[in-house]
Amino acid sequence: MRNAELLRSALQSLRANPKRSFLTTIGITIGIAAVITILALGNGVKKRLSDEFNTTQNGEQYTYLYFTPNDSQSAASGFTETDLNAIEERFGAKVKKAAISHETNNASVSPLVGNERVNNATISLLKRPTSKISIIAGRNLTTNELLTEEPVILMKESLAKKQYQTVQNAVGTSVSIGDHDYRVVGVYRSQTNTYNDNKYGADLIGGTKLFYSGTTATTGYGIKLTFYQGANAGKVTKKIKKYMEKKGTSAHDGTYMAVDAGAELTKVNNMITGLTAFISAIAGISLFIAGIGVMNMMYISVSERTQEIGIRLAVGAAPKNVMAQFLLEAIVLTVGGGLLGFVIGWLLAGIISNFMPYHIHAVVTLNSFLLAFGVSASVGIIFGILPAKQAANKNLIEILR
Question: How far apart are CA 100 and CA 123, in angstroms?
């Protein structure tokens, strides 16, 4: 019997009892769906971390060095051009570039709103106007205002109502941040920003160019260190930190902290990989139980179709053909359930990722598909082989009696 005939015969047999076939595949579907969901979310977290912290597009590593002043009212600049030049001169063989790191998303500020100081506020900075916010009073920022460093700013709805009772009252008022006095030209609708991961959920939105102008353009509390490929970024960063603690322009006014994103990323990736493997192993239990169900269903099928087996043997079918047919039925059953589970897991991961913080998106790879296909086919082979052998070993004389 040719393979195409075997497959057609297997499908016809499964369609003969669709409810039983469907119920048998549920376990496989749930198990595969759970594994794919976990893998997709784990891959999404890894990709998000990699995009955020790991390397530049050219594969170069980078780390961050931060300065924290001893006194919140301190005038210490943190890092200056002098520090950057010293780092590049002393560590130039390893460090490709040292630059002030300016925060543009949810940067912490303590603005003077009207006559009241607002502590722990956040501001997001733009280079061009955005349509991702909804203006509910006044107007949006314009491209010309951002390019020409006009002191204008947008205020979030919740802050406007808190300070001025209505959003309309906030338009035209002033906000002071650092050396700049801004005029509020619009109020935008509040967006969720629980983890400070939503750029457009900040309390204020202004222009990057004006905010980091003057002395703030060349100073800051953080620097980004970009390393040549092959450099031990973590080790060199520690040396730079020690050097800053001795020679930095603000060495006596605060403390330095190194953040090796690559090392942290490796730890987190290892943790996620271990967690994913552990949860996948638990999900694998459902696949084992589902495999038992497939085996039971196939034994029942062999028992119910004894006459059919006898007829096939009587008209010349070889035992190996009978065995192949029943084995193929088991494989078709489990692969069908596995593919359905793959689709459900993909959709489920996509839905769950919509509720995850830090804009994590589910990532389903070709390996995930091959895993779902391979595991479900293996379950069919492992748990279908014994019933198939039983069918092939049927004695034609006993069947005819």
Answer: 18
| Residue 258: strand pairing partners | 65
pLDDT of residue 2: 66
H/E stretch holding 156: strand 152-156
Residue found by looking up tokens 């589902």 in the block:
290
Question: What's the full length of the chain, in residues?
Answer: 401
| pLDDT tens track for 167-205 | 999 999 999 987 889 999 999 998 887 777 788 989 999
Cα→Cα distances 223→63, 78, 241, 348, 385, Å? 9, 9, 11, 40, 63
CA 99 to chain centre: 28
> Distance between CA 345 and CA 352 in Å, rounded?
10
Residue 319 CA to residue 389 CA, distance in Å, equals: 9
What is the rounded CA–CA span in Å between residue 327 and residue 321?
A: 10
For the chain, residues with pLDDT lower than 50 are none
Full-prediction pTM beyond 0.70?
no
Residues 155/203, Cβ–Cβ less than 8 Å: yes
* Beta carbons within 8 Å of 218's beta carbon, 6+ residues apart: 80, 81, 100
**Phi, psi for 210 (deg, rounded to 5):** -75, -40
What local confidence, expressed as pLDDT, does residue 187 receive? 95
DSSP 160-213: HHHHHSSHHHHTT-EEEETTEEEEEEEEE-----TTS--GGGSSEEEEHHHHT-
pLDDT of residue 109: 84
C-beta of residue 65 within 8 angstroms of C-beta of residue 222: yes
